[in-house]
Task: structure prediction
Amino acid sequence: MGCSVSTLPPGDPSAIVALAPCALPAGIPAPPVATRPAAVPERVAADPGAARDAAPLPGKVEQRALGADASVAYVVYVPSRGGAGAPILVTVHGISRNAFEQVSMFAPYAERAGVVIVAPLFDRGRFPQYQRLVENDSGESPVAVMEAVVAEVARATGAHSERLHLFGFSGGGQFVHRYAMAHPERVAGYVVGSAGWYTFPDAGQRYPYGLGYSRRLRMGDFELERFLAVPGWVLVGERDVHEGTAMRRTERVLLGQGQSRMERGLRWVDAVNGRAAELGLAAPVRFETLPRSPHSFRRSMRRGDLGQRVFGHLFGLVENAAPAGHARSRPSPGADERGAG
Result:
């Protein structure tokens, strides 16, 4: 069963790459969509400017340029029924910049759930520390870039953008939980996949280690109670238990957060739920392990049912869902990144 593929000329900075997910009979689980076209692509527009201004094509994964700034790229998927009134999932890549892969593999779930997916692509040289939300040397904010991309897609599709659903893997998980802390009013729910380290709910530590205001980064002093009202999930592969070469390993993080992504995720969930308990609030974050999954988005999708878990948690998608696996939501008893996460 084939999938249609189309692209603009490869040399054009505003080129669009489109991959249509295959149609499947009802009741059969959708396999992950391929992340690269397998056939010789065909042109969909002769005028790059016209393609950039056109609305995203329903039922296709497209890499596009932002209309207001063609140097900013993003990937988008609109379900075949269209995006009017649909919720938006913002998925954020790690340092591998695999935005196209994330959207492509999530597309079958978004099709069933009626969700528009948006993935900003943070240029490596332009936003080397996007994970911390901080401005680059030119004063450009990765948060502002994400918001501009979301606004463009919402205008073009009619999707709802008032409150967003967020997913991030590795370095993207860092971006997502920090965005939820900084802008809880914008977040309906979030899922962190295997982040390398975290901002803890501790006002005694300066951002990005804690909530205290950092004059150098001009960020912090977040409203903890508002963040604790946002539901979240932390998912880590059960084989993601080793120190990674791209994981922050300063003495401060090793001592304060742990040796592995597994340990760091558990400690952060305990700390967040512990602060909620102190304030008389329900535990807002749950922790789950992904079976047979190392530190790999692709393998977590194929082995750990990551897609089904993300869309189940955020949108209630239960069709073809796998067993819940190892889930935890435990309150605490009293309770700088250079790589992928």
